[in-house]
Design goal:
single chain, mainly alpha, 6 helices, DNA binding, DNA-binding, Helix-turn-helix transcriptional regulator, Lambda_DNA-bd_dom_sf
């Protein structure tokens, strides 16, 4: 069974990020990411919450190895973002805001 550290490394690598970039994306240092990836420390609840929230990580996979790594694919996320932006633009137009 994979450790949280191994899972974190898989997530980070799948996003093509360095430890510093990944840590910065969730408000933690490169050293914090490195320590967790190398199983020298356990992630805090805050770390796990931000990881799940900001990187679309499936909590069931992270904690219990159930399901897929991410809640939805990158293509699904892009499509959803596009749909949201279209809706926002329509709302702004209706209110006369350009």
């Amino acid at each position: 069974m994979e450790t949280i550290g191994e899972k974190l490394k898989s997530i980070r690598k799948s996003k093509g990020m360095t430890q510093a970039e990944f840590g910065e994306s969730i408000g933690f240092s490169k050293q914090a990411v490195s320590n967790i990836e190398n199983n020298l420390s356990n992630p805090s609840i805050d770390f796990i919450s931000k990881l799940i929230m900001y990187h679309n990580v499936n909590a069931n996979w992270l904690i219990a190895s159930v399901g897929e790594m991410f809640n939805c694919t990158q293509n699904q996320l892009k499509s959803l973002k596009s749909e949201i932006m279209t809706e926002v633009e329509l709302i702004l137009k209706k209110r006369g805001i350009n």
